[in-house]
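Case study.
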Amino acid sequence: MAPFTRRRPIEEIMKEIRRDDTIGILTCNTCSRYMGTGGVASQDWIKSELKKEGYRPAEDYIFVCPCSQDAVKKHIHFSEKTSVIISQACSAGALSAKLNFPDKRVISANVDAGEAVVVMNKGRAKLMTPAKGFEDKVGTEYALMTGEEMKDTIITELKPEKRED
Amino acid sequence: MASCMFRTLSYGDLKKKLKKDDKIILYTCGTCVKWMGIGGPDHMKALAEKLKEDGYNVIYQEMNGFACCFELVAASGMHPVSAPFFQEATVIISLIDEEATLNVESAFPDKKVIPTCKNIGLGTWSPETGNRLSVAWPGIPLEIPPDGMPTEEAAKKLGMYTTPFV
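After joint prediction, the assembly is written out as follows.
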């Protein structure tokens, strides 16, 4: 923990949606929310962007653990008419949606950046294990809840050089 | 889950890192590592009992609900119940992922911390159909198909474990 994600550009996401699609949105309210790519704020943002361009977000869920395949199966019920699901989660959340709704296309609104530690009292997350393409961001700090990349480093409690595996 | 980690040590490997006069704390988390079937309170308790049977001095077991949060880990050293044990301990066996282990190392720099897990990637959690990897981190030699890879298959390819110590 905790999966660290970044938003994909909205233009890229829109290229994967057809005009006649009925859109469902599944938004993570745990890790992705902390990293600024999930939660209410991110869902409101993507719905607004889609509507501005004339797309039809028809139903949406904000869910605590979209990475749990069984929990999604039990609690998330997209209607038959929904043709595409936009996943605002990490790749595990998107995979869970794909496995539970094989008749619908799943589009990831986020990309995995790796795994981070969270330091609540400093309001930041620090990337420790990078995903492919984010190797140069190891040690970078991000604001919790917005994901804004910070230019400075204030999390000095963590001393990765100590490890002797 | 969504962090996927595999156990890297066997029980025999773990014992080789311990001395009979070590004062041992077992440290686990109730989230990802529990869902992976490697850690969590039940598996920690079983390991503690096995170590005690084998003559090791386990003085305390700590369960954290969210061990990738640094303050929650550091709080173990401040709480009136757990603090005396964290002062007395010489070794902390970390039944958690690498990020959380880093938090333990940083919160308790004077202790010997023994990592037991390696972060592999992210994945879904499903007791019904089995956990599946959705992505593997750079340096992990796995090709993940679009429908994910069962974690047991991934662990077998990597020579690691998806099961608890005991």
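Observations recorded in class. Chain B has one domain: 2-158. The first strand of chain B starts at residue 2 and ends at 7. We will return to this complex in the next lecture.
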